[in-house]
Amino acid sequence: MKRRTLFKALAAAAILGGGAGGVWSFLRRPEFGALPEGARLDSIMASPHYAGGAFHNLIPRPVLSDGSGFVMAFLRSIAARKTDPEPPCPVPAKRAALQEPARAEDALVWLGHSSFFIRQAGRRILIDPVFSASASPLPFSVRAFAGATPYAASDMPGIDCLLISHDHWDHLDYPTLMALKERVGMVVCGLGVGAHLRRWGFSDGMIHEADWDEAVPLGADMRVHVTTACHYSGRTLTRDKTLWAGFLLESPGRKIFFSGDSGYGPHFAALGKRFGGVDLALLDCGQYNERWRYIHMTPEEAARAAEELGAANLIPAHIGKFALAFHPWDEPFRRIAAASRGRAFHLATPVIGEVVPLAPRLPEYPRWWEGLAGNA
Question: 191-247 pLDDT, tens per residue?
């Protein structure tokens, strides 16, 4: 058993072996957040996507395609043998000064996994930031790849809008948000996610919770559309009490779509038709396996979704920083590169931290993942 796997097993045994009181105490720690209640829960219950005490995908699908439960899935993940789950050497990354004035040219920085810094129409936008070395309540579990975290919260400028797609640990990171809290002007998230933020001291006035197909204005000339995704939510074994979502940033002359975590579905074609195409798509295309086929896309599905969105450019997401699935760490890069050949969109694969000028066609980037084995 690998050392990392052994640590996981020991941690699970320690938590479970602590008895009901120990588990209860552990789950009450602030990083687990809170669930909506009271008048806010009453408002959530009015959503057409909420029924029977939980949110539901547009097309009913199980989270795990084989029908297994989460405890069994967790135990299976501990025992599973992974092939090349991490790069053989630190991933390449760059650091740029992100403190330029908001009026600087539109640009994007991939911060690894599903985290993005975007400068668009004079606004600074941060999506699903995770600057911690671990995406888990257990600090020795789900560790970031070496070199994959070149930025800290202190490197961020003032953020006009923070977007949170859902409340899983690799998207809603408690230490990161606590460090960013004083730098953020407003937060846009799905229904119910604000309960976590309020527990963590974010003021009620800065939190804008929205349902699918609703929009939140960012000034007079920009909007954040909260869009459909096919996924699930929860920071403990309590599931689907908060809404998962994607976002479309619309400003004069530019539309950027972020899928959040999502399985493939007809919502991509519907969004492409509704918005008349997008300039850039940031799509989930990693951390997939057969049991998760309804809640994450394969690279081939992401390429299909990009075409159905009418995307001019595609940057793959949910890859390059954490090993959450069983596939080799670089497999999503290899497969999305192959699946993008001959497509109507342009694939761009910058390294973590690289500033990407936003243009009708993004720059060409080398396949940086191919050279890592030789540098080991």
Answer: 999 999 999 999 999 999 999 999 999 999 999 999 999 999 999 889 999 999 999
Q: Would 178 be classed as within a structural domain? A: yes
DSSP designation for 283: E
Q: How far apart are CA 200 and CA 34, in angstroms?
A: 9
- Domain membership of residue 186 (yes or no) is yes
Indicate the DSSP class of residue 355. Answer: E
Strand partners, 55: 50
* CATH number of the domain within which 218 lies: 3.60.15.10
Is residue 362 one of the residues assigned to a domain? yes
Which domain does 182 fall in, by range? 107-375
- Say which residues have a Cβ less than 8 Å from residue 249's Cβ, sequence separation at least 6: 118, 120, 125, 222, 223, 224, 225, 255, 256, 257, 258
User: Can you name the residues that pair with 127 across neighbouring β-strands?
Assistant: 116, 163
The terminus-to-terminus CA distance of the chain in angstroms comes to 23
Quick: pLDDT tens for 177-189. Answer: 999 999 999 999 9
HEC sequence for 99-144: CCCCCCCCEEEECCECCEEEEECCEEEEECCCCCCECCCCCCCCEC
- Of the candidates 227, 315, 319, the one whose C-alpha atom is nearest the C-alpha of residue 274 is 227
Q: How many domains does the chain have?
A: 1
Q: Which of 72-76, 116-120, 339-343 has the lowest mean pLDDT?
A: 72-76
The DSSP secondary-structure symbol of 233 reads -
Of the candidates 289, 300, 297, the one whose C-alpha atom is nearest the C-alpha of residue 347 is 300
Is 66 inside any structural domain? no
Spatial contact of 332 and 299, defined as CB atoms under 8 Å apart? yes
Q: Given this model, what pLDDT does residue 80 score?
A: 61
H helices present in 231-298, as ranges: 267-275
**Cα–Cα distance list, 51 to 59, 170, 193, 198, 353 (Å):** 14, 26, 17, 24, 41
Element containing residue 19 per DSSP (H, E):
helix 19-27
Residue 9: pLDDT over 50: no
For residue 257, the Cα-to-chain-centroid distance in whole angstroms is 13
Q: Pick 82 or 340 by higher pLDDT.
A: 340
For 229, the 3-state DSSP assignment is: coil
